[in-house]
Amino acid sequence: MVNQIKNQNPERLQLELNLGDQLNALLSASHALNVRTAAIFDATLQPAAFLIVRWLLANGPATATTIAEATAMDRSSVSRLVSQLKKLGYVQSETNPEDRRGALLALTELGRGKATTAIKEKEEEFYKRTSKWENTDLEAFIEILKCFNGYDTKACE
User: How many domains does the chain have?
Assistant: First the structure.
């Protein structure tokens, strides 16, 4: 890999460094926006708790183990955060229909409502950044991101 970088065209190398700069800016801005969105949901919680809420909103009821794996959090952190979310009335446990001994975690109506409100704030921020783009530019950006993220490899060929 290091030899590939050494032998790379200087113009291409500079472009890739510029890409790295822009990706770092995107990740930093995204993290800051996630923290602000989490505070809109409930300022008394750690932003990681809102990550669990967002995951449940997008994917529906799940076991704590599934949530931990999907969010790259350790099981004990998920357990602690879920306990806080339950105390505040945002998450509830349901009997797992596939395994009656296990429990699924799900958002309550309160949790779903507050999460939706917080996410709308985040969407407005993204809309501000893309509202003046032509639809074709936005479609192209989406397709490039799909390729970059490895979701649509056929379109990237």
Answer: 1
Instruction: Outline where 46-108 has alpha helix (H).
Output: 47-59, 64-71, 75-87
Q: What angle do CA 17, 21, 26 make, to 5 degrees?
A: 145
Residues 6+ apart with CB under 8 A from 143: 152, 155
Using the structure block, give the residue that is written with the tokens 């001994």.
Answer: 101
CA Rg value for the chain = 20
Segments forming the whole domain that contains residue 54: 2-156
Measured between alpha carbons, how far is 53 from 92 in angstroms, rounded to an integer?
11
85, 12, 98, 14: which is closest to 49 by C-alpha?
85
Which tokens hold the place of 61? 């009821």
pTM of the model as a whole: 0.75
Place of tokens 């790295």: 20
Q: Which two tokens stand for residue 144?
A: 């490039």
pLDDT in tens, 42-71: 999 999 999 999 999 999 999 999 999 999
